[in-house]
Amino acid sequence: MSSMHFRPARNWMNDPNGLVFHDGRYRLYFQYNPEGATHGFMSWGHASSTDLVRWEEHPVAIRYTEEHEIFSGSVVLDEPDTSGLGAPEKSPLVAVFTLADQVGRHQAQGIASSLDGGLTWRLYDGNPVLDRGSADFRDPKVFRYSGPAGAYWVMVAVEAVERRVLLYRSDDLKTWTYLSDYGPRGATGGVWECPDLFPLAVDGDPSEVRWVLLISLNPGGIAGGSGTQYVIGSFDGVRFTPDEPMPPAVPLEACDWVDHGRDCYAGVTFSGLPDDERILIAWMSNWDYAGRLPVDAETPQRGAMTLARRLTLVRTEGRVRLRQEPIGPQTTTIAELADVRAGAPSTLIEELSERCRIELSVRLDGADGFALDLGGAAILDYSADSGSLRLDRRPAAGAMPDGFGSIEEVRLGARERVELVIWLDRDSIEVFASGGTCTITDLLPERDGAGASIAGRGGSVLIERFVVGAVSATEVKGRTA
Q: How far is it, in rounded angstroms, from Cα 67 to Cα 103?
């Protein structure tokens, strides 16, 4: 199936790993089962791209061994060769990941190095490099930090069941010293996984830099099952301090969420980009049903990634929020409407292409809200009374696993005008509202190409702008290397 979302040609995929930009290519490693379409035999699959849209799949990068599966982690360019794993005039890429001994329920951190730009990897003979004697110590994200005390590596990992983020430092990526921990705080209804920590300037102002801590949570996400919360704060090279301290457990609605949908999990950002640029990719599924999604009998495959998303921080309504801008393929406009009034259900387009981008701007003009029906696959509904946008994917969920049919909701606040950007694939939807500070990502049953219609509720609404841009197969097609 041609898709604008990356998925391997065969087999199982989940969390993105080792996202790195190096030598002009974005490298995406990911949790992968080379043996089949169910979770197991965890290894690092590999794909790369020059534009974050067209991906080339490569052979398995780091394969499981008889002793360990290779769980989630990160990749950095060790430019000064602090690790000593480089070669003359050749800085190594270093992968830091969790070595998971499933028999003994033991998890520790290991490293591997690459001297050919990330195509092939050599496991370090001295693994593990950090071992707490824990069954649930995993998902290291490593970055280079420079401060008054000099430059060093920082690792952000989790004690998953304890709901704690742990920070360590190292001078050589081999020997690690404990710095501090964070949590349990905020959403604690499930295990914590796949942390990330990075700086961003608020509204692009370099004099106001905050740090963003991402924490994935399963179960206990805002939409049920898997989800990712974020916390804004400061980092002094030792300790992360949130701007708005939270007690050990709070209502989910009191937390900030990367996405309010069911299918955006374990998202992390690329290393190797300029300090003021952050791009995130997440796994587009949910542990509630990921292993039960239908597969093609001839080429069984489960798992896809979200579109890449450029992250920024903005101050809105008195708070600093994370904004996401999707990086999608080029489109060709196939439908455009402006200043059309709709009360009763009105057809906007007779047929939606398999892959498209939709821009929608609706002025309520006193109506109670509106409902956008996307060919029966999903309904987007905005209520002026609650100020909430809801995504209902129940209408076509009959052929999907139990628990798939659901309604997701994100509060936009009272709006006279609602503006949405929607990326619709054959089997998924990503909705960006309020300028990208509110998002909903959901898998969908495979669509049949039906059109879209809209209806005002409690009065007519004005469709100020409705634009559909189709994505051609050539815009998303990659090749297997």
A: 9
Answer whether 423's CB lies under 8 Å from 259's CB.
Answer: no
pLDDT tens-digit series, residues 323-348: 999 999 999 999 999 999 999 999 99
Instruction: Report the chain's C-alpha Rg in angstroms.
Output: 22
Residues in Cβ contact with 51 at an 8 Å cutoff, skipping those fewer than 6 apart: none
Catalytic (active-site) positions: 15
**Tokens at residue 18, please?**
């080792």
- For residue 22, what are the CA distances in angstroms to 77, 92, 198? 8, 11, 18
Residue 158 contacts residue 195 (beta carbons within 8 Å): yes
SS3 of residue 429 by DSSP = strand
Distance between first and last Cα of the chain: 18
pLDDT computed for residue 481 by the predictor: 40
Q: Which residue has the tokens 């189709």?
A: 470
- DSSP summary character for residue 399: G
Separation between Cα atoms, residue 433 and residue 412, nearest integer Å: 8
pLDDT at position 327, please?
Answer: 98
C-alpha to C-alpha distance for 263 and 401, rounded to whole angstroms: 14
**pTM (whole model) above 0.85:** yes
pLDDT score of 306: 98
What ranges make up the beta strands (E) of 148-288? 150-159, 164-170, 177-182, 191-202, 205-218, 227-235, 240-242, 256-257, 265-269, 278-283
* pLDDT for 480: 44
CB 439 within 8 A of CB 324: yes
Do 387 and 415 meet the contact criterion of CB atoms below 8 Å apart?
yes
Sign of CA dihedral 324, 328, 333, 335: negative
